[in-house]
C-alpha cells in the first residue's frame, strides 16, 4: 500500500510536468549512456556535473536545484533515499 501511496504522490507532483520531445530524447540518451556504468562511475560523473553547474549557475539557481533534489524524496523507496542522501552529502561536501 505504501508504494501505491507514493505512486499517487508522484502522479500528483508530476502532473504539471510536460517535457518537450528534445528533453525526453536527452533523458533517454543519458539513461542509455549510464546504463552500463557502475555506481561509483555515476557518482564521479555527478560530482563533475555538480562542479560545472555550481560554477556556471547563479547561487540562487544552484540552491533551487538542490532544493528540487530534496523534493523528490517522497517519490523514492528506502534504497533510493539512501543513495540520494549519499549523493547530496558528496555534493554538499559533507
Question: What labels would you give this structure?
Answer:
mainly alpha
Task: Report on this structure.
The protein has helices spanning 2-14, 21-34, 39-56, 59-71, 78-92. The relative contact order is 0.11. Mean pLDDT is 77; it is low at 1-9. Helices cover 78% and strands 0% of the residues. It contains five helices and no strands. The chain has one domain.
Radius of gyration: 15 Å
Shape: globular
Count of alpha and pi helical runs: 5
Residue share in helix: over 70%
Q: Number of DSSP strands?
A: 0
Instruction: Summarize the main sheet.
Output: none
Q: Structurally, how many domains make up the residues?
A: 1
Strand content: under 5%
Structural class: mainly alpha
Q: Could you report the average pLDDT, rounded to the nearest whole number? A: 77
- Low-confidence residue ranges: 1-9
* Order of SSEs: HHHHH
> Distance between termini?
34 Å
Topology diagram in text:
Elements (H helix, E strand, L loop, with lengths): L1 H13 L6 H14 L4 H18 L2 H13 L6 H15 L2
Short description:
With 94 residues, the protein is an all-alpha fold. The protein has helices at 2-14, 21-34, 39-56, 59-71, 78-92.
